[in-house]
UniProtKB/TrEMBL annotation:
Transmembrane parts of this sequence: none
GO cellular component: a single term: cytosol
Protein name per UniProt: RN213 ligase
Keywords from the UniProt entry: Ligase
Record keyword Ligase present: yes
Lineage top rank: taxon: Eukaryota
Gene Ontology biological process terms, A to Z: negative regulation of non-canonical Wnt signaling pathway; sprouting angiogenesis; ubiquitin-dependent protein catabolic process
Source taxonomy: Eukaryota, Metazoa, Chordata, Craniata, Vertebrata
Keyword Cell inner membrane applies: no
GO MF terms held by the record: ATP hydrolysis activity; ligase activity; ubiquitin-protein transferase activity
Annotated organism of origin: Certhia brachydactyla (short-toed tree-creeper)
InterPro entries, alphabetized: RNF213
Amino acid sequence: FQYLKRFDRGCDLDRFCYEALSVEGSPAECLQLFLLHCGVVDPSWAELCNFTWFLNVQLRDCEASVFCNPDFVQDTLNGF
């Protein structure tokens, strides 16, 4: 949710890291962003669950990768 919220606002996500246990927005806002970005017109709860699980895994792996660390790659992969 934190990534999607910033993505919709046009924020630079290259230096953003997930903030564990921080609460942002409301449950309704969270659901609205998931529905907007999941890619299915009328998703089931299972499809929303799979979308959020997959997105979470991908973003966690991205944060852990040295190749996605802006301090390591500097400006060679800006916006990647």
